[in-house]
Design brief:
There is one protein chain. The protein has 106 residues and is mainly beta. Helices cover 0% and strands 52% of the residues. A 4-stranded antiparallel sheet has the order 1-2-5-6, with no helix packed on it. The chain has a 3-stranded antiparallel sheet with strand order 7-8-9, with no helix packed on it. A two-stranded antiparallel sheet has the order 3-4. 25% of the residues are buried.
């Protein structure tokens, strides 16, 4: 049990290691359009790897980009990628979509 990654996280598998990164929870008030006011948040940039062969979780280096939820994780050519997601602005308390791409090299 790794405890701090879960809801709305991104995942990808490289070799025998499953990676789970970013994610978290936020509550949106009103009718919940993409940029409505966020009433609570717990979004993180943690990164964990699960080794299938040893049945163990290992904390990886923290994701260096903005904390986000609902990103897409995928693998191409042996490298993991994290695409987009939603971030919460700490001043305006708005959740907005971002359109960036990050690469993870094991």
């Amino acid at each position: 049990d790794f405890g701090d990654v879960g809801f709305r996280s991104a995942a990808f598998v490289i070799g025998d290691t499953a990676h789970i990164t970013t994610g978290g929870e936020f509550s949106v008030g009103g009718s919940a359009p993409p940029a409505d006011t966020v009433t609570s948040t717990n979004i993180h940039n943690n990164h964990w790897g699960y080794s299938i062969s040893s049945n163990t979780w290992t904390r990886k280096s923290i994701f260096n980009g903005p904390k986000r939820a609902e990103a897409i994780g995928f693998v191409y050519n042996g490298k993991g990628y994290l695409l987009g997601g939603r971030v919460v602005d700490s001043v305006t308390k708005k959740a907005t979509y971002i359109y960036d791409l990050w690469r993870y090299t094991p």
